[in-house]
Amino acid sequence: MNALVVVPTTTWYLMLSAVLFVLGTVGVLVRRNPLIMFMCIELMLNAVNLSFVALGRQIDSIDGQAIVFFVLVVAAAEVVVGLGIIVSIMRRRNEVTVDDLAELKG
Amino acid sequence: MELFVFVCASVMVLAGALGVILRSNPVHAALSLILTLFGVAVLFVAQHAEFLAAVQVIVYAGAIVVLFLFVIMLLGVDRAENMRTEPLAAQRWIAGVVGIGMLALLVAAVYSGSDEVVVRGEGIASTVAGDNPNANVEQLAKSIFSDYVVAFELTSILLVVAVVGTVLLARRRRGEVKAEQ
Fold it and tell me: How many whole angstroms separate alpha carbon A38 and alpha carbon B46?
């Protein structure tokens, strides 16, 4: 029974957050669809949110959660603007990989 | 119990993240993203951040992923991407090396600081406010509307600017509509 009362410490949450962040980074580096790259950026933002909440709990402060709240708002705004740009670009071109978007003129 | 929740939520988070970067169909990737976001919401609940968990589900899974799906449908890109061919040779190798290096650095950083975080707080709800079930929301509201009120007002400006800018970006100009007709 004693083995069952192991509680995950802050370090566990930070390790999970690190793995999630690295997965998001690898996704941004590997994938060529701009929509999927945006999703990977969301993964990285979520990893950072997770570490903020874990560390805020660690020091018994609400500030970590307040910062996560603002990160959520900024992430929403970022997705809206990014998807607007993608829609306006894709309306002119049919191909959907970022390799075709290397030139701004077009 | 928290260990069980942590393990299950971690599996959800990592499976969803792997799904996002491995699935070739963008719709499947967006659905995997929902899995990850729900896992993170569960972890928020496990750390007594109930308000953020609700906001995570409503804003991320409810709004942002739906926006992604709308754009996927709107652009008609919901066909599988060809993942076999790689135009830039060695890009995946380099990405893998960068990923492993970064993971090693982050894990080393967390590990070297793990002595500092062994003594864990009991969670904000239990330490400050006793048994009040609304403690999380009340403290967050006090913090946002007093300490961070300027930042809060700035986010409203940010949202307005983002909405107006997106409408400007995405609308069709008059010439384009005529040309399509």
Answer: 27
Chain A residues touching B144 at Cβ < 8 A:
66, 69
Three-state secondary structure call for residue B76 = coil
Query: Which residue range is the domain that position A69 belongs to?
Result: 2-101
Alpha-carbon A76 to chain mean position: 11
Rounded to a whole number of angstroms, the distance from the CA of B165 to the nearest CA of chain A is: 7
Please give the residue range of the domain that contains residue B69.
1-81
ipTM of the complex: 0.87
Total domains in chain A come to 1
Could you report the per-residue pLDDT of A51-102, keeping only the tens digit for each? 999 888 888 888 889 999 999 999 999 999 988 888 888 777 766 677 666 6
A chain contacts of residue B159, beta-carbon cutoff 8 Å: 73, 76-77
Q: Which CATH number is A58's domain given?
A: 1.10.287.3510
